[in-house]
Amino acid sequence: MADQLIRATAADGGIRAVGVITTRLTEEARQRHQLSYVATAALGRTMAAGLLMASSMKRVGSRVNVRVKGDGPLGGILVDAGLDGTVRGYVGNSQIELPPNAKGKLDVGGAVGNGYLYVVRDIGYGYPYSSTVELISGEIGDDVAHYLVTSEQTPSALVLGVFVGATGVTAAGGLLVQVLPKAARDEALVAKLESRVASLSGFTPLLQAGKTLPEIFNDLLGDMGLSIFPESQMLRFHCGCSFDRVLGALKILGEAELQDMIVKDDGAEATCDFCGSVYQANSEHLSQLIMDLQTESSVSG
């Protein structure tokens, strides 16, 4: 199945549901960053969570940054996801591997450790909205659901999953179900929904069983007035880095530092943390930057 996002509502609009399949983009991230099994699961879950969170934003160009900073050996996670369906991200220690946890699953919580979840929502104008909550498990899904309840006051259930086999990622994605204010007062409805979500054995087993997102929605909300939006949104791993941006960053270093790079290294190399792309700037590129700085200085003077 292609990577995609599908939205739905239920209970006369009182329940909002969003599902994502992120198998291919998670595999691309694994290959780009040469991720271990547990690092793949951690980053894959966080990218799916970022896309689910960004899906509720309204303005074109809106993005959400999700940063997980724990004291575990993974060294942190940073994900940038957009309303447009693009996502990118990386982890601090891509090679860390741990034994399975007590449930026999990849120990993402142990890799992340104790710490904080930072969320920044950029709606495209004004100051971005930021919030911080303490991690409650390090397993990502629990932590993001905790953030949605405490910081955005929206009762939410979040199921995330990444299955990594010997050949790579074979299933990844997630499901976000939120009870909106108009339905939050219906305690029986909320209890029923909580029970349904709790009964799920996970998200990747559903994908591996051949379930589509509409089928998953129907199993969960089919008797609650489910309405699935007809259009699906394609998702992809995408980074906006470029050679021109790298040159812009190098220019900020100033003439003396650029000249030192020419003398000592005959150029400069920069690697994008988000996507792993490597950019080479030779001495001619750096000399041109120095000339640009000198021109700008003479004009402003």
UniProtKB/TrEMBL annotation:
It comes from the Bacteria. Its main location: cytoplasm. Keywords: Chaperone, Cytoplasm, Disulfide bond, Redox-active center, Zinc. Under oxidizing conditions two disulfide bonds are formed involving the reactive cysteines. Under reducing conditions zinc is bound to the reactive cysteines and the protein is inactive. Disulfide bonds join 239-241, 272-275. Coiled coil: none annotated. It is found in: Cytoplasm. Belongs to the HSP33 family. Redox regulated molecular chaperone. Protects both thermally unfolding and oxidatively damaged proteins from irreversible aggregation. Plays an important role in the bacterial defense system toward oxidative stress. PANTHER family: 33 KDA CHAPERONIN. This is 33 kDa chaperonin. It comes from Anabaena subtropica FACHB-260. The gene is hslO.
